[in-house]
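Weekly modeling sync, notes
Attendees: S.R. (lead), two postdocs, one rotation student

Agenda item 3: backlog of single-chain predictions. S.R. asked that every request posted to the team notebook include the full sequence so nobody has to chase files. The rotation student volunteered to paste the first one in as an example of the format we agreed on. Action items at the bottom.

Example entry:
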Amino acid sequence: MKIITMEDQAFIRQIASYHVQMLQHDPLIVTQSHTMACALYEEMIQRRIELNGDYIEATVEGDKVIAYIWGHHDVSSQTVTIESLYVSPNVRHKGLATILKQHIETWAMHQQARQIVGTVLENNDAMRALNEKLGYSVQKVVMQKMLKYD
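Predicted structure, as returned to the notebook:
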């Protein structure tokens, strides 16, 4: 496991790309082109590490990120938001997500946060089950209706 810092530009670029790929599966998010969105998230991650102390921990093999978690601490609400959690398909079901979530919980306690929140897509049964196993509960459900035009 590696804590990502500003010096880890290649890893930040990979994390931004994975984050954008996951956003493309979210029906509530409209993204620009993949290249533009990646560049924007790469810059956002860099700035949030530098200016806000965001927490990003990754499992890396050589020069490749195979799993990561990205969390942001909002001091005013004493809330850590899990911005993104990714585990490469070829290493899933090996406990990496559990370890990453436990590590961010430890970090959140060091930040004196009172709660951790995150968003999980409705059809992501594995992540929902993991969150419930780790003591997370559903606090709200986002409902959507697509409008049809004649």
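Discussion: group reviewed the output briefly. DSSP finds four helices and five strands in the chain.
Action items: rotation student to repeat for the remaining queue; S.R. to check formatting next week.
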